[in-house]
Amino acid sequence: MDAQAVDSGDLKKKTATSILWSIVRVGWSTVATFIIFVILARILGPADFGTFALASLFVEIGRVLAYAGLGDAVTRQLELDEELADTAFWASVAFSVSVGVVIFFAAPAYGEFVRDPNVAAILKWLALFLPLSSLAVIHNARLARDFGHKSLAAQSIAASLLSGLTAVAAAFLGWGVWSLVAQTAVNGIVLVVLGWLSYRWIPKLRFNFAIFRSIFLFSVSLVVSQILWMMLARVQDIFISRWFGPTEVGRYRIAWRLIELISQAVLSPIGSVALVTLSKLQNDPVSFRNAYNRIVGLAALGTFPLLLGFGALSDQLILFLFGDKWGNAGDVATVLVMMAVPFVMNVFASSALAAVNKAQSILSVAALQLAMTVVLTWLLVPYGIIAVAAGYALRAWLTMPYQQYVLKRFAHIDSLGTLKAISMPFIGSLVMAVCVWFAKPFILAAVTPAWLGTGLCIALGGAIYAAFMLIFAFKMIRPYLAMIMSMLPARFRLLAQK
Question: What is the full per-residue pLDDT of the chain (498 aa) written as tens digits?
Fold first, then answer.
C-alpha cells in the first residue's frame, strides 16, 4: 500500500469522518456522564467515591494486563489475518479469567494495604466482571481498524445511558458506593452485547502460538507502558488514602475526574483514530510527522481553553455543581490544570511510537514519569492534597523534554514543529484564563445569582479565546475549518460560502 496515496486520498476522508463520529460518541458520553456524575456526587459522599476509586485502581491495572494490548495489536495491522484475530480473542479471554481470579483472592490484602476495609468486597465483584468485558475487545478493535466509529458511537451512547440510569436509581435507593459498582456492571454488559451485534464476527476455536508470540512481543511493552501510565495517574490515591483516608481520595479524585471529562470530550475522539491514521503512514516519515502535528494541533485547539478556563473557575464550578461537602477539590483542580501542555503531549506520544512499532521506547518515558511522581508525592503528601497536585504538575513539566527526545529519536518528530502547532492555542487560552481570573470577583460581586455570574465568566472566556484565535491564529485554524466544510453536504457548503 502506497503511504502517500493513503495520506492524500481516502485516509484523510476516513480520518475526518471517524473523528466526527468519535466526537458524537464522546460528546454524548461526556454530557451524559457529566450529568450523571453531578447527580451521584450530590447523593453520595467523598468517602464513597474514594473507596470506589481505590478499588477501581486495582481493577484497571488488572484490565490492562487482561487485555494485554491485543486490541491495539489488531488495530495496527495493515493487512489483518483472521487467524491472528482468533488468536488475539482467545488470548484476551484467557488473560482476563486469570487476572480476575488473582484480583478476587488478593482483594482482602489490598484493602488492608490502602487502609480501607470496604474496598475488598467491592473489588471481588469488580473482578467477576473483568472476563465478561474482555469478550468485546477484539470486536471493537476490528471496528476501529475499519473506521467503524459510527457503530462505536452507538455503543457508547447506549452503554453510558443505561449504566448511568442504573447508578442513579441505585443511589436513590440508598445503595451508596454499590451504585457505582452497578454502573460498571451494566456498562460492561451493554458494551459486550452491542460489540458482538455491531461487528458480526464469531471467532473460530483456534490458537496459533507462533502468531501469539509475534503480537505478544509487540503488546508486552505496550502493556507495561499502559500500566505505568495508569499508575502514573492513580498512584497518588494510595499515598493519600494511607495518610488521610478515602474521603480525601474522593476529593482529589473528583478534581481529576472533571479534568478527565474535559480530556474525554476533546482528546478521546481524536486519540481514538490517531493510532489507526498514523499506523497507515508509518512508512512515510514526512506524512507521518505532518499528520502527527496536525492531530496534536487540533487537540490543543479544543483542550487548552477548556482546561485553563476550568482552572480559572474550578472553585465556583465545583461548589455550584456538587456542594460544599467536596471541600478544597476546586483548588486541587486549579493546580492540576497547570500541566495542560504535557498532558496533551502525553496522549499522542504513545500513539505515535506504537504506530511505528517502537512501543518499547514508551517504557523509558513512562518509567521516568512514574518514578518522579512517586518521589514527589512521597515528599509532598504530608503537606496535603494540594501539595500532591502541585507535585504532579511539576513532574509533568520536568519529564516533557525527555519525552520529546524519545519521539524525535524513534518517530522522527521534531519537537519544535509540535510546539509550533500548539503555541497559539496555548497562548490564547492563557490570555483567556488570566482575563477570566481577574474579572471573576468583579462579575460575581455584581451579578446574582451565582450561577448567572459564573455563566457570564464562561461566556467572557469563550469570547476572548475565539477573538484571539481569529485575530492572531486564523492561518492555523483555517485548515480545520476547511476540513469541517468538506464533511458538510453540498447545499450547506454553498450556504456557508455565501
Answer: 444 444 445 555 555 555 565 666 666 666 777 788 888 888 888 888 888 988 888 888 888 777 766 776 776 666 667 777 788 888 888 888 898 899 999 999 998 998 888 899 999 999 888 888 888 888 777 777 666 666 777 777 888 888 889 999 999 898 988 999 999 899 889 888 888 887 778 888 888 787 777 777 667 766 777 788 778 878 999 999 999 999 899 889 888 888 887 777 777 767 666 766 777 777 777 888 888 888 888 888 888 999 999 999 888 888 887 877 777 788 899 999 999 898 888 878 877 887 777 766 777 888 888 999 999 999 999 999 999 999 999 999 999 999 889 888 888 888 888 888 889 999 999 999 999 999 999 998 888 888 888 899 999 999 999 999 888 888 777 766 665 555 555 544 444 454
CA distance 194 to 188: 10
What is the number of other CB atoms lying within 10 angstroms of the CB of residue 282?
19
| Residue 158 · residue 197 · CB < 8 Å | no
Q: Are 319 and 42 in contact (CB under 8 A)?
A: no
Alpha carbon of 126 to those of 102, 185, 220, 300: distances in Å? Answer: 12, 8, 24, 35
> How far, in Å, CA of 115 to CA of 55, rounded?
12
For residue 175, give the nearest of 58, 291, 48 by alpha carbon. Answer: 48
Torsion of CA 350, 355, 358, 363, to 10 degrees: 20
The pTM assigned to this predicted structure is 0.76
Q: Any alpha helices (H) in 323-449, and if so which ranges?
A: 329-336, 340-355, 360-380, 385-411, 415-446
Residue 379: CB atoms within 10 A of its CB come to 12
Q: How many helices (H) and strands (E) does the chain have?
A: 20, 0
Q: Angle between the 285-322 and 415-446 helix axes, to the nearest 10 degrees?
A: 20
CA distance linking residue 90 with residue 86, whole number of Å: 6
What is the grid cell recorded at 110?
489490598
Task: Write the single-letter amino acid at 289.
Answer: R
**Identity at 256, one-letter amino acid code:** W
C-alpha cell at position 18: 471517524
* Integer CA distances (angstroms), 47 to 38, 43, 53, 58, in order: 16, 12, 10, 17
Packing angle of the helix pair 360-380, 385-411 (nearest 10 deg)? 160
Q: How far apart are CA 355 and CA 415, in angstroms?
A: 18
Question: How many Å apart are CA 316 and CA 10, to the nearest integer?
Answer: 46
DSSP summary character for residue 448: S
Q: 79 — alpha (psi -120 to 50), left (phi > 0) or beta? A: beta
